[in-house]
Amino acid sequence: xxxxxxxxHLFSTPYGYYMFDVNKNIIIKIKKPVYEALINEQQxxxxxxxxxxxxxKEIEILRTNGFLSTKRPKEIVHPExxxxxxxxxxxxxxxxxxxxxxxxxxxxxxxxSGDGELQRTHTNKRMSFETARKAIDFLIHHSKEAEIxxxxxxxxxxxxxxxxxxxxxxxxxxxxxxKKVSYVITTNATLLNEEIVEYFEKNDIRISISLDGPRExxxxxxRFASDGRGSFDTxxxxxxxxxxxxxxxxxxxxxxxxxxxxxxxxxxxxxxTNCETVSEMNVLPMIVDDNxxxxxxxxxDDFIKKRNYELFKVYLYELGRVSRKNVSQIFLSQYYQEQxxxxxxxxxxxxxxxxxxxGPCVPGESRLFINADGCLYPCEKVNExxxxxxxxxxxxxFDLNKVRNLINIGKLTExxxxxxxxxxxxxxxxxxxxxxxxxxxxxxxxxxxxVRSTVENLFRNYIALWEMKYMINKINVSP
Length: 479
What we know:
Layout: E1 8-13, E2 16-21, E3 26-30, H1 32-43, H2 53-64, E4 75-76, H3 84-90, E5 94-98, E6 105-107, H4 129-141, E7 148-154, H5 162-175, E8 180-187, H6 194-202, E9 205-210, H7 215-221, E10 222-224, H8 232-245, E11 253-259, H9 265-274, H10 276-279, E12 283-287, H11 301-318, H12 329-342, E13 354-355, E14 368-370, E15 375-377, E16 392-393, E17 397-398, H13 400-407, H14 414-418, E18 434-435, E19 438-439, H15 441-471
Parallel strand pairs: 4-13, 5-7, 5-14, 7-8, 8-9, 9-11, 11-12
Antiparallel strand pairs: 1-2, 2-3, 6-10, 14-15, 15-16, 16-17, 18-19
Helix pairs in contact: 4-5, 11-12
């Protein structure tokens, strides 16, 4: 075996030995001697080591079938790079309005509840209707090719500005005639009342409610700013009100559940299963975001073990071996996300000469965020104090140089990216490497390590489910 090394990744599981071919974007099972020979080639600078003749033949068969290509991208550049201007001029699909920077809660993990060193803090700044009107006009003018547009209302706590939200909806009805518009609001629910819910139902506005689990876990972080009381009882009262008085609308109400790995995830799991009302709702779990916090979120081994056990039960449920009642609603959502990732493991004809990992979206196209001042950001998750993330203003439009800088973060580590086996599955986003001094090479390299580990675990789960489908009849599990 001579020449440049194949662009592959090798790994083993309890089920056997596997090779991920980067150019074909396929995982295949291989024999142990082939695995060992390929490992030896990958790890040695000298690729002329002796190989058993039978193994050599099997490797040649792989090559004949298009595997083991040494091809790498020659340049790291995002495939949408040349189309950025067109996309942002014609195909913006979602816009989120920051109607206020104030909130009536002070949540322990919220970056806006900090000292303001890394992120903005809660302020009394609110979006004027003039700014909102300009933002809506901006969306309409930049979404000519989007059949459906989504408008979100965000804060702070957006219900502090319910009157502004109503004005926005009525203005959109006039301006977006002929275009389908969907709405969503992210809220802590404490200010919901019948008047608001009736308006949301009438205008088909979906609600995403923040609820972090049972009382003791939710109240640990989500407290009223006025007196420090936990907000759990108020939130549940509002959810029950919607369920009982607006049953037809209730299916359009979902839960965003922030999971702190240091809390008792089993307790949260039981709450989602045993609370009748919550068990009927769509729950979107999210790990605490530490992109703009002082320290990294610590994930204990117990949490990882519990997660893996619950995901295993979900696999069995999908294979028809356990009933729905035995499956965690939290981890079922995670499983479906994993299935979306599995869908990306599909055959390719080889890497193009110009390529980029898939983390960066086209900033502003799919989740444009407009803050109270009218500044444009890629999405609501980025740092509003970051000049790198400020990609324009509703009065002046997009700064295309900044947009292209964000979409091509692979340029920071170009040589590494060209040779990284995760390039087709990497999801590193610019927000993950945003520092006080701009986009950070060191943060990018650290994220690379984490992503490689995450993707290999994804592949292992893919293999486990794949192999279990063939072995399931041998597993003695009662439904």
